[in-house]
Amino acid sequence: MTHHHRIAGNGQIQFGVFFQGVNHTTVWKDAQSGSQTDFESFRRVAQTAERGLFSAFFLGEGLRLREHLGRIHDLDVVGRPDAQTALAALAAVTTSIGLVATQNTTYNDPADLAHRLASLDLLSGGRAAWNIVTTDNAWTGANFRRGGFLQHEDRYIRAEAFVQTAKAIWDSWADGAIAGSRNDPRWLREDAISTVKRHDESFDVEITGRLPRSSQQHPVLFQAGDSPDGRDFAVRNADVIFSAHPELEDAKKFRDDIVARTLKAGRPADDVKIFPGQEFILGATAAEAEEKHQWVRSLQVGPETAIAYLEQFWGRTLTEYDPDGPLPDIDPIVDVTNPTRGNAFHGKSAKDLAAQWRADAKENGQSIRQFVAARSRLNGRGLVGSYDDIADKLAEYAHAGAVDGFNITPWIVPGGLDDIVNELVPRLQDRGVYRTEYEGTNLRENLGLRAPLTRRGSLTSTQLTESEEVA
Ligand SMILES: Cc1cc2nc3c(=O)[nH]c(=O)nc-3n(C[C@H](O)[C@H](O)[C@H](O)COP(=O)(O)O)c2cc1C
Predict the structure, then answer these.
(1) What does DSSP say about strands 71-72 and 56-59: parallel, antiparallel, or unpaired?
(2) Of 119, 78, 125, nearest to 101 (Cα)?
(3) pLDDT at residue 4, rounded to an integer
(4) Which residues of the chain have pLDDT under 50?
(5) Domain boundaries, position 308
(6) Listed residue (230, 233, 268) closest to 450, CA to CA
(7) Percent of the chain's residues with pLDDT above 90
(8) Known binder of ligand: residue 106?
(9) What is the pLDDT of residue 312?
(10) Which of 11, 38, 334, 441 is the Cys-Cys partner for 315 at CB 3.0 to 4.6 Å?
(11) What are the residues whose beta carbons fall under 8 Å from the beta carbon of 95, sequence distance 6 or more?
(12) 20/72 same-domain check
């Protein structure tokens, strides 16, 4: 299946920035760290990203503050502004970068969310995208009594109906709906707007779309959700996957899996782009980068954070354990790790997990703190190295076709992209794997996407031939 990498990738790497603004990966105990809520932080990160020709500025969504043993988790950064509000403000101080809002399909309604996203799309000149999630915060159903908790598979059923409805809303204004000239008899062509009707177990709605299409037709669709259901949902509906598979070999495997699913869904192999989340820790030399790596990890996983991390899985306080000593020798008091909170270990036997971790830590000679610093990064170690080494490494990704880009998660805000833009981007350009200017005027063009799935009928014959060859 190796040929799939080459077919699906285009030999280039793009960047997005995932401004997290929350959790332990965002360093706050350092003099360089700024506010997570001040617009100035958003502005600086977005404008730096745009200077570095990034494709997208990306915001996540959390529906509730993180909790720990029944209390608000008070060790890490929490609290972030609503994504669409922040992105609307950023649209005014940027010109080319895509603006991606993570929004869940479990607690929103299509008529409302589709309208807000179309608004961002029009007001930004065709730069909006929606990162579709069913949300790993589904346990926050208490915030939304009307909807309440939905089981995993039900969430994807609702998500599918939701996205189809949103697309129908975006497509509900006909081409040429609005008068082409002041001499036309009326502003709106007769019957130019069709009503979207959907009556199924998820929705019972009749919706009139309230906006025309943008220059990119409708917002680009990202998807984040890694289960088989999530992947199939992505290849049926999305343009880009925000993946959790950044390591090269794993990224190739993930690409193969997505290409196979994409072809099965009747789409060209390269139709779904892949952007894994990844942390970059760079230096002028490998030794400097490694030193910085140790320093960043020590700030991200302090002694209390290390203990709190284990407490999530043990289900009890572990404050009597030394963070610089071995993992707790007692068993967890919960039977299974909490299945609703979206962590990577849901449903596993807590006792087995603890035993496994104890053995792993012992084998690697790791203390609690060292173990957690390594383990709590779901995506492995991050890209750690000199500017030149990492540029070479990224060129390898590009040539292997393993990914289309990386969604960079800065560990510090607002300066976290400075070395990437100043030092890494020029080296990637020298290696011919990174753009030297934005290719298009809207996000769809800059991501190299075809027309939206629902609008493929209007593809030109050249575009169709190209996509058939690719398949
Ligand atoms: C890389 C990545 C980023 C995600 N970001 C968010 C987020 O910002 N907010 C959210 O509610 N869920 C987020 N999710 C979770 C998904 O919404 C989904 O609920 C969760 O992964 C469970 O679905 P799955 O079993 O298909 O993976 C993210 C998932 C992945 C893989």
Answers:
(1) unpaired
(2) 119
(3) 59
(4) 1, 339-340, 342, 459-471
(5) 302-375
(6) 268
(7) 74
(8) no
(9) 84
(10) 334
(11) 50, 125
(12) yes
